[in-house]
Design goal:
The protein has 149 residues and is an alpha+beta fold. It is built from four helices and five strands; from the N terminus they run ββββαβααα.
Length: 149
Protein backbone atom coordinates (compact mmCIF):
# COMPACT_ATOMS: atom_id res chain seq x y z
CA UNK A 1 0.00 0.00 0.00
CA UNK A 2 1.43 3.39 -1.05
CA UNK A 3 0.89 6.04 1.59
CA UNK A 4 0.91 9.75 0.74
CA UNK A 5 1.02 12.88 2.88
CA UNK A 6 -1.20 15.36 1.08
CA UNK A 7 -3.72 18.16 1.45
CA UNK A 8 -7.43 17.56 2.04
CA UNK A 9 -9.44 20.57 0.84
CA UNK A 10 -12.17 21.97 3.04
CA UNK A 11 -14.06 25.24 3.31
CA UNK A 12 -16.24 27.14 0.86
CA UNK A 13 -15.89 28.24 -2.74
CA UNK A 14 -13.07 30.82 -2.95
CA UNK A 15 -12.41 30.39 0.80
CA UNK A 16 -10.38 27.18 1.05
CA UNK A 17 -8.51 25.77 3.97
CA UNK A 18 -6.68 22.48 4.09
CA UNK A 19 -5.84 19.67 6.46
CA UNK A 20 -2.52 17.90 6.06
CA UNK A 21 -3.41 14.21 6.05
CA UNK A 22 -1.85 10.80 5.64
CA UNK A 23 -3.90 8.70 3.21
CA UNK A 24 -3.72 5.71 0.90
CA UNK A 25 -2.69 7.00 -2.54
CA UNK A 26 -5.66 5.22 -4.15
CA UNK A 27 -8.25 7.14 -2.11
CA UNK A 28 -10.02 10.30 -3.29
CA UNK A 29 -8.54 13.72 -2.48
CA UNK A 30 -11.15 14.40 0.22
CA UNK A 31 -11.87 10.75 0.97
CA UNK A 32 -11.05 8.56 3.94
CA UNK A 33 -7.71 9.26 5.59
CA UNK A 34 -5.45 7.36 7.95
CA UNK A 35 -4.51 10.34 10.11
CA UNK A 36 -4.67 14.14 10.15
CA UNK A 37 -1.33 15.67 11.07
CA UNK A 38 -1.78 19.38 10.45
CA UNK A 39 -3.65 22.41 9.14
CA UNK A 40 -2.98 24.97 6.42
CA UNK A 41 -5.03 28.15 5.87
CA UNK A 42 -3.64 29.98 2.81
CA UNK A 43 -6.13 32.87 2.81
CA UNK A 44 -5.02 34.31 6.17
CA UNK A 45 -2.27 36.92 6.31
CA UNK A 46 0.28 35.47 7.02
CA UNK A 47 -0.76 31.94 6.07
CA UNK A 48 -1.59 29.74 9.06
CA UNK A 49 0.51 26.56 9.12
CA UNK A 50 0.40 24.02 11.94
CA UNK A 51 2.02 20.58 11.70
CA UNK A 52 2.35 17.90 14.38
CA UNK A 53 6.09 17.43 13.97
CA UNK A 54 6.35 14.06 15.73
CA UNK A 55 3.65 12.48 13.56
CA UNK A 56 5.11 13.96 10.36
CA UNK A 57 8.55 12.56 11.25
CA UNK A 58 7.03 9.14 11.99
CA UNK A 59 5.16 8.93 8.67
CA UNK A 60 8.18 10.11 6.69
CA UNK A 61 10.34 7.51 8.47
CA UNK A 62 8.01 4.63 7.52
CA UNK A 63 8.02 5.65 3.85
CA UNK A 64 5.07 8.00 3.31
CA UNK A 65 5.65 10.23 0.28
CA UNK A 66 4.68 13.92 0.62
CA UNK A 67 2.99 15.71 -2.28
CA UNK A 68 4.92 18.69 -3.69
CA UNK A 69 2.69 21.15 -1.79
CA UNK A 70 3.11 19.31 1.52
CA UNK A 71 6.86 19.00 0.92
CA UNK A 72 7.05 22.81 0.61
CA UNK A 73 5.08 23.18 3.87
CA UNK A 74 7.35 20.66 5.63
CA UNK A 75 10.40 22.64 4.46
CA UNK A 76 8.92 25.80 6.00
CA UNK A 77 8.24 24.08 9.32
CA UNK A 78 11.71 22.48 9.36
CA UNK A 79 10.37 18.91 9.44
CA UNK A 80 11.76 18.04 5.99
CA UNK A 81 15.26 19.15 7.03
CA UNK A 82 15.06 17.07 10.21
CA UNK A 83 13.98 14.06 8.17
CA UNK A 84 16.91 14.51 5.78
CA UNK A 85 19.34 14.68 8.73
CA UNK A 86 19.87 18.42 9.17
CA UNK A 87 20.17 18.91 12.94
CA UNK A 88 19.90 22.72 12.61
CA UNK A 89 16.57 22.74 10.74
CA UNK A 90 14.23 25.34 12.22
CA UNK A 91 10.77 26.64 11.41
CA UNK A 92 10.60 29.72 9.19
CA UNK A 93 6.81 30.04 9.39
CA UNK A 94 5.61 33.61 9.90
CA UNK A 95 3.31 33.96 12.91
CA UNK A 96 0.49 36.46 13.19
CA UNK A 97 1.12 39.15 15.79
CA UNK A 98 -0.97 38.95 18.95
CA UNK A 99 -3.76 41.49 19.24
CA UNK A 100 -3.25 44.30 21.69
CA UNK A 101 -5.47 44.01 24.75
CA UNK A 102 -8.46 46.37 24.65
CA UNK A 103 -8.18 49.37 26.97
CA UNK A 104 -11.23 51.52 27.61
CA UNK A 105 -10.63 55.26 27.38
CA UNK A 106 -10.67 56.54 30.98
CA UNK A 107 -11.45 60.12 29.89
CA UNK A 108 -14.84 59.21 28.46
CA UNK A 109 -17.85 58.63 30.68
CA UNK A 110 -18.85 54.95 30.64
CA UNK A 111 -22.36 54.25 29.34
CA UNK A 112 -22.85 51.08 31.37
CA UNK A 113 -21.89 50.67 35.01
CA UNK A 114 -19.92 47.56 35.93
CA UNK A 115 -21.86 44.81 37.72
CA UNK A 116 -19.86 45.33 40.93
CA UNK A 117 -21.18 48.88 41.29
CA UNK A 118 -24.76 47.78 40.63
CA UNK A 119 -24.61 45.00 43.26
CA UNK A 120 -23.39 47.23 46.12
CA UNK A 121 -26.54 49.41 46.53
CA UNK A 122 -28.74 46.32 46.66
CA UNK A 123 -26.55 44.85 49.41
CA UNK A 124 -26.91 48.04 51.47
CA UNK A 125 -30.71 48.14 51.05
CA UNK A 126 -31.23 44.52 52.08
CA UNK A 127 -30.01 44.79 55.72
CA UNK A 128 -32.05 47.95 56.23
CA UNK A 129 -35.16 46.17 54.94
CA UNK A 130 -34.55 43.12 57.15
CA UNK A 131 -33.97 45.12 60.36
CA UNK A 132 -37.61 46.28 60.82
CA UNK A 133 -38.88 42.76 60.17
CA UNK A 134 -36.54 41.42 62.86
CA UNK A 135 -37.72 44.13 65.30
CA UNK A 136 -41.35 43.25 64.65
CA UNK A 137 -40.66 39.55 65.23
CA UNK A 138 -38.84 40.37 68.47
CA UNK A 139 -41.73 42.56 69.57
CA UNK A 140 -44.24 39.79 68.82
CA UNK A 141 -42.22 37.13 70.67
CA UNK A 142 -42.58 38.69 74.16
CA UNK A 143 -46.28 39.22 73.50
CA UNK A 144 -46.68 35.56 72.65
CA UNK A 145 -44.81 34.60 75.82
CA UNK A 146 -47.12 36.86 77.84
CA UNK A 147 -50.21 35.16 76.39
CA UNK A 148 -48.92 31.74 77.44
CA UNK A 149 -48.31 32.90 81.00
Amino acid sequence: MAVKIRLKRMGKIRAPYYRIVVADSRKKRDGRVIEEIGKYHPTEEPSFIEVESERAQYWLSVGAQPSPQVEAILKLTGDWGQFKGDKNAVSTVKVKEAKAEFQADEKKKPVLKPKAEKAEPKAEEAPAAEAPVADEAAAEAPAADADKA
